[in-house]
């Protein structure tokens, strides 16, 4: 398993993740590909990054770091985390989020995210994120 910073996204590499996530009712990988191809979000602003996790040439997970577009503070936002179902529980998501945290340290004072998936919420809490209530844009945050 290798975590790799993506400098140029080859969208065909995400076909398996796109198909599975769409089948499971998630839209965020479709948005990742669309926004990247349209130039809306290429994770290329200062202190942004996109990571994938690979076994050989197979992409089994993906996670991004953006400047938080909803804040004028120095906050980073975790975006588009997805791990193929067959690799969940093996540390892939944790390693991807750790890569994002490592990249964000020294650049942001806080990392935030939004999820409406209770299992994802528990995953982030295990990584040290605090759950927030009554904020429509942020469900979890981590002080860096």
TrEMBL record:
CDD domains: NAT_SF. One of its GO terms (molecular function) is N-acetyltransferase activity. SUPFAM superfamilies: Acyl-CoA N-acyltransferases (Nat) (SSF55729). It comes from the Bacteria. Pfam families: Acetyltransf_1. Coiled coil: none annotated. This is GCN5 family acetyltransferase. Keywords: Transferase. Residues 1-144 form the N-acetyltransferase domain. It comes from Paenibacillus solani.
């Amino acid at each position: 398993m290798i975590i790799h910073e993506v400098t140029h996204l080859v969208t065909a590499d995400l076909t398996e993740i796109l198909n599975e996530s769409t089948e499971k009712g998630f839209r965020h990988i479709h948005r990742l590909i669309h926004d990247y191809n349209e130039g809306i979000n290429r994770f290329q602003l200062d202190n942004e990054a996109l990571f994938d996790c690979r076994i050989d040439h197979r992409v089994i997970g993906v996670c991004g770091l953006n400047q938080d577009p909803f804040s004028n503070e120095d906050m980073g936002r975790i975006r588009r985390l997805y791990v193929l179902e067959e690799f969940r529980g093996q540390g892939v998501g944790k390693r991807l989020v750790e890569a994002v945290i490592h990249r964000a340290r020294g650049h942001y004072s806080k990392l935030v995210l939004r999820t409406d998936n209770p299992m994802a919420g528990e995953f982030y809490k295990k990584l040290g994120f605090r759950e927030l209530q009554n904020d429509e844009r942020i469900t979890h945050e981590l002080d860096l």
